[in-house]
Amino acid sequence: MRNRYIVAYDVSDGGRLRRVFKKMNGFGDALQYSVFACDLSAKERVLLEEALSAIIDVKEDRVLIIDIGPVEGRAAGMVRTLGRQVKPKQREALVV
Q1: 48-61: per-residue pLDDT in tens?
Q2: What is the pTM of this model?
Q3: How many CB atoms lie within 10 A of CB 14?
């Protein structure tokens, strides 16, 4: 089962910020500059946390991972956008 996660980050260093953004593109779709929607299995969520932990400085940066539920259930309608919409990418496989 896959759950939808909203991942938001606040990274203080420009180099780490770019690396986090690149890594997040492999896991989900950008909703804003530092906010992503990710449909992940439990294993993929662990991989995401490990990948981000290897990049960020835990004393200076922050990453929020919010589980909004199963992709096939309530989570599908939980995110609303006002203004220009972002079209989700079709993913055949997770890129890490």
Answers
A1: 999 999 999 999 99
A2: 0.82
A3: 8
**Three-class SS state of 51:** helix
End-to-end CA distance of the chain: 19
Provide the mean pLDDT of the chain: 86
For 33: left if phi > 0, alpha if psi spans -120 to 50, otherwise beta; the answer is: alpha
Regarding predicted confidence, which is higher, 2 or 73? 2
Residue 78 sits at φ, ψ, to 5 deg, of: -80, -25
Tokens of 1: 């089962």
Q: Which residues contact 33 (CB under 8 A, 6 or more apart)?
A: none
Q: Return all residues near 10 (Cβ < 8 A) that are at least 6 apart.
A: 34, 61, 62, 63
What angle, 0 to 180 degrees and rounded to 10, lies between the N-to-C axes of helices 42-53 and 14-25? 160
R_g of the chain computed on alpha carbons: 13
